[in-house]
Amino acid sequence: MASILITGASGFIGSFIVDEALKRGFNTWAGMRKSSSKRYLQHHDTRFIELDFAHSMKLREQLQQHKNQYGAFDYIVHCAGTTKCRNKDEFDKTNFVQTTHFVEALQALNMVPKQFLYVSTLSVYGPIRETDYTPITESDTPQPNTAYGMSKLKSEEYLRQLIDFPYVIFRPTGVYGPREADYFLMAKSIRNHLDFSVGYRRQDLTFVYVKDMVQAIFAAIDRKVVRKSYFISDGHVYPSRQFSDLIQKELDKSFVLRIKCPLIVLKVVSLLAEKSAGLLGKSSTLNSDKYKIMKQRNWQCDIAPARDELGYAPQYDLERGVKETIAWYKKEGWL
Known about the structure:
The longest helix is centred in the first third of the chain and has 20 residues, at about 90-110. The protein is of the alpha/beta class. It contains eleven helices and 13 strands. The protein starts with a strand and ends with a helix. The strands form four sheets. It has a seven-stranded parallel beta sheet, with helices on both faces. The chain is about 40% helix and about 15% strand. The mean pLDDT is about 95. It has helices at about 10-25, 55-70, 90-110, 145-160, 180-190, 210-225, 240-250, 265-280, 290-295, 305-310, 320-330; strands at about 5, 25-30, 45-50, 75-80, 115-120, 165-170, 175, 195-200, 205, 205-210, 230, 240, 255-260. It has a domain at about 5-180 and about 205-235 and about 300-315: Rossmann fold (3-Layer(aba) Sandwich).
């Protein structure tokens, strides 16, 4: 039985990867911090390993101990990271530096897996192709304008420069689904009859349902690809209001007040929220990075390589995905 390690296993995407690994019969290890919640990791066959990516020597000790007792991992899905921080330096430390700690430890201990599947983001490319609104492709030059996107790009560049290292990089667009907290805020707002949108210029959005994201990862394992990168979306492009309209439909709200926020107002509010959260020692969902992400007008990306090389076939368009997500929020008492 092949073994697989999923880092960031307690998170939104990570927990779904664990579910699928167990379903496929992998010897499944959930990598997480000691303080992380096991709320969505209740299956009795899930095995746990504590990993301290922030301290390289401690990390090596933890991996060495695992190797001595259980052997190396056949596959690793590196999903650990952060999407919001108290300050921008934390993105670099968590998403880039800690990734290098992990890879260096694997190399030093002779624990390099058959595939190292890295969950990156479409944000590594930044706001490009915003005049012709055409899909972002692999041949485009990344121009990240957020600390988050830059930290992920640095990790990608680090992996690509390693000789013979068996990386597979995934760049999903907006991932949504059950257990996800940020898109939930939109649903919560619409439940209260309010919807906010940003800017007045055309905005083309793309999404991927979490189960389709997971499908792509295991398709890469099945096809045994290495040293490849893939954009991941559901293959459709949506106008800016489509997501909120579908939420309104699923919540059966006949009236929602639509407020369109000028970019300059959003920028001021984002900076104030970030500053206030920083003074309190917290991270804010609304911040300068989030402002730049919401400001971006073109989120189209080319998923043809994933279709052709992995056999990736997304099963959820936005309507089906939102329906299932809202049903889960209701069932779990979130809404």
